[in-house]
Amino acid sequence: MNWYFIIFSVVKVAVVIGAVLTMVAYAVLAERKISAWIQDRVGPNRCAPPFAKYIPFAGTFLTRIGFFQPMADGLKSILKEDFMPAGVRKIYFWLAPALSVIPAILVVAVIPFGSQLGAQKMVIADLNVGILYTFGIVSLGVYGIVLAGYAANSKYPFLGGIRSSAQMISYEIAMGMSVIPVLLIGGNLNLSRIIGWQSDHGWLVLYAPVSFIIFLIAAFAETNRLPFDLPEAETELVGGYHTEYSSMKFALFFLAEYTNMIASSGMMVTLFFGGWTLPFWGLDHPAASLAMGLVQILVFLVKMLLFMVLFIWVRWMFPRFRYDQLMDLGWRRFVPLALANILVTAVILWMKS
Amino acid sequence: MIVNRKPLTFWERLYLPAIAGGLKVTLRHAFGSLFGGKTVTMEYPEQKWSVPADYRGAPYLVKDQDGNTKCVSCQLCEFVCPPKAIRITPPGPAGQIADRPNAEKMPEEFEINFLRCIYCGLCQEVCPEEAIFLLKDYSLTGQSRDEMIYNKEKLLALGGTHGGIQKWKHKLEEAKAQDNFPVKV
What we know:
The complex is a heterodimer. Helices cover about 70% and strands about 0% of the residues of chain A. Chain A has helices at about 5-40, 60-65, 70-80, 90-110, 130-150, 155-185, 190-200, 205, 210-220, 235, 245-270, 290-315, 325-350; strands at about 115, 120. A two-stranded antiparallel sheet of chain A has the order 1-2. Chain A starts with a helix and ends with a helix. Chain B is an alpha+beta fold. In chain B, the strands form 2 sheets. A 3-stranded antiparallel β-sheet of chain B has the order 2-3-5. Chain B has a two-stranded antiparallel sheet with strand order 1-4. The interface of A and B includes residues 34, 38, 39, 42 and 318 of A.
């Protein structure tokens, strides 16, 4: 513990949080654009600051792809009236958005987003219990939603809160058990070492495909994305748990949802798709030079963005699950499947050793 | 009526073929709109809707083929207008009746409040002089309420020309003929 460690950690935290928040803003844009394309629409293509037309060549293109839209959206959420309905439980009403954002951002801390730049490891906290930490923090995310549903003193948020608590608790079990085979094979709880194992032996998705499928689907349920978006089902519950929220408090819930998407994409890349490694061009070992380090960060980002696109893409394919179907899928399909998966993996590993 | 549901087959219960099918459909649409230009969006201010021939847009005043105001300030349209959007100020006994000989009186002021107008077309229907027509304009905007009240000048400028029989001209000729009629004592 010395000053260098503290300074570098602060720099890393600042950069990562900045990057995550920017990615959230542009994930919203990507969501709107990809939705538009899938639905044969154009999507946001008008928003432009006055100086946009003076940018040579790219100005019109950036406006067409909606590059400036997130800035306008952000400005809008800050400037809008922060309306608090009568009869809300004020302390909880204030606390809920923070409680859903904080766990979402905390998860990002243990995800290795690159090998190293110089002597610095590109992970904020290289915990030996990385995966356990992640699951611990992720399960805290449900409190923000439940509290929002409770504090608003309105029936739609309340229903959303109830649904989300049941859904997130059910799928956490399947999610947690789906990762156990990965730990058995990789032999470590530290995410950096799991990546190290994958660079030696190949991506874990090849060893544990069932785990990956369960994890992927559970991740959709955990992040409240379609087809499991029952907590915020717009068509049934107005807006779900954040119905009564406005302005920046609403934006915080949005931020939490997209940060969760980013974090779970990052987790999937780390656990199953080799993190920052690629099996060729010498990208599978910690970088020796700064340039290679940057390339590896880029590799990680690209892999993660592919998962983000998948999240958005899947949204436009499925109708929302009914509540009993959701529970049925979680408890009667995935939990036994995950248990069987653990057993089979353990037996195979035992036979090999 | 009882609809018997067929039990799902194993493949159907797995969801996977349906997922693949869904991915295919959405991907086809995404590529179609990205690279094929198959979007259904009309980008409004640049691309405009082609208005059908019998469309009832905003009512404007028209001029005759010589550029004269056709309206004779009879106030029938003002009377018939259901939302009371039209307001006509006739010249009155002291005012100037018309800008040309033998014409009937002209409105001193003719205002249509487009915040009230419902584009029903009764004014056009009732007008004995074919002086007001519902044209094709459908997008009227302004930054204040006052701006949305169009006066005579503006309505005439927007309305354009609509030719027809010019009653006042006939009257003028008749009057001239009357003057020249040889009177025998």
